[in-house]
Design brief:
The protein is built from four helices and no strands. The two termini are 27 Å apart. It is mostly helical and 115 residues long.
Length: 115
């Protein structure tokens, strides 16, 4: 799970600095919300990068839609939150897909056997 944001930040740093800043700002939120969701998902499904990308986007949208609605109801100031929603909607599926690809690559059936 940590590898997705880090690899995306390192690979995107030569092109733009946005992936590096996104890793610093969104990485902790991605890990706090994403790790429990991914562990729950892994109990029932095999890891597929496309599935993880969709799950990461759905988790992000569920989390930040509720935060946006609360901020809108309190004071209506959505400037910072709208920026997070825009960038997060782009980076959450990328990080989920890269994390899924890493996990899929490292997964071995040997470790799934019981004694």
């Amino acid at each position: 799970m940590v590898g997705g944001p880090i690899i995306t930040g390192i690979a995107g740093a030569p092109l733009l600095l946005i992936p590096s800043f996104a890793t610093l700002f969104g990485g902790p939120i991605y890990l706090l919300a994403g790790v429990p969701v991914m562990l729950f998902h892994l109990r029932r499904h095999r890891p597929k990068p496309a599935g993880w990308a969709l799950l990461a986007l759905a988790t992000f949208l569920a989390l930040f839609t509720s935060i946006t609605l609360i901020a809108w109801a309190k004071n209506g100031n959505l400037n910072g939150i709208s920026a997070i929603l825009i960038f997060g909607s782009v980076f959450a599926p990328i990080w989920g897909s890269v994390s899924g690809a890493i996990y899929h690559r490292l997964e071995r059936d040997f470790f799934k056997q019981t004694l």
